[in-house]
Fold this sequence. Notes:
Blueprint: E1 3-9, E2 23-28, E3 31-35, H1 41-47, E4 55-59, H2 71-80, E5 93-98, H3 101-111, E6 120-125, H4 140-143, E7 153-154, E8 158-159, E9 168-172, E10 176-184, E11 189-196, H5 205-210, H6 217-223, E12 228-229, E13 235-236, H7 238-241, E14 250-253, E15 259-260, H8 264-268, E16 274-278, H9 286-291, H10 297-307, E17 311-315, H11 336-345, E18 352-355, E19 361-363
Parallel strand pairs: 3-4, 4-5, 5-6, 6-7, 6-8, 14-16, 16-17, 17-18
Antiparallel strand pairs: 1-2, 1-19, 2-3, 9-10, 10-11, 10-15, 11-14, 12-13
Helix pairs in contact: 10-11
Amino acid sequence: MSMDMTFLGTGSAYPSPHRGASALVLRTEGECWLFDCGEGTQTQLMKSQLRAGRITKVFISHLHGDHLFGLPGLLCTVSLNTNPDTQEKMNCVDIYGPRGLRNFLRVTLGLTGSQLLFPYAVHELEPTPEQSPEEGRLSLEMTEERGPLHPQERLGSTIQLDVSDDCYVLFEDKKFVVKAFRLFHRVPSFGFCIQEHDRPGRLKTEVLKELGLKPGPLYGRLKAGEPVTLESGHVVQPSEVLEEAIPGRKVCIFGDCSSVLGPGPLRLCRGADILVHEATLGNEQREKAVEHGHSTPEMAAAVARACCARMLVLHHFSQRYKPSSSQEGRDEDSVSELRRQAEEALQDSGVEVTLAEDFLTLPIPLQRPR
């Protein structure tokens, strides 16, 4: 199964001529999961090779506008491009994010009289007080649900922190388990860990031939982990005829933060194939970054090192940092300086550093056992 990640917006605060606001898409087998949806995300999607209609899940890290303002418009545009005469059942779009997101969408879609041709459900993560300063905590009065459900809204769940595991379990299916973890920011922020299930190893065809098994349905049963009984009565266990399992891929996407909270994030993200982390300001502005709940390349590198990640991808750059391809500004205002700072902090770690740019697509290959 192919898997890749496309960055639609890599800037902070607002969209600019150089960078869109925060948004990225994780794509697997044609299905698209959207992580954050800043203003202008639908325009960025139109410029990309991705199809907005393939988005089946949306994950919002926190409720700041540069990660959220694009969501109502995107849902409406997807609906406008949906064929109302299709006989196929419309799949529900599942949306995950902090408490308050459900009311935001309900009120926004309701006030604007927006109707959708597909159902949606908002699953809210209940934050803890440690995730932000007191002034950043949204009151229950502000986030309480008002009025009836939107006509296309389906009941979503409220997800509490699993204290024993220090994470939020969002969902698990046959291919993935997706969890969220707590981050510290000016408002409650979350990161997401997408873990693909391990795949069974290849069949040892020579061993199967020696056992007298020919290609057919029994091969499929062994591959699926079921023992097979031969005519002789001998029971063949899958472990006898399967090579080592192929590890599932792990992608970790951090929302805005100046630190992680608890042991959950580092444990969940250990061994990540790709770890996406913000680097809003350079190391020389660490004090300012932390004051505003953000990180520097050195801070992002420390997280990647602690997680033993294969690749650290930096994004969410202040608009002062111009893309490497731009000739504007001074050298210290080039985003390349942020990569240099992260690489310096990761010397001898084996962690590769990549700078995200709008429309950059990163393939995420399987790591087969040696």
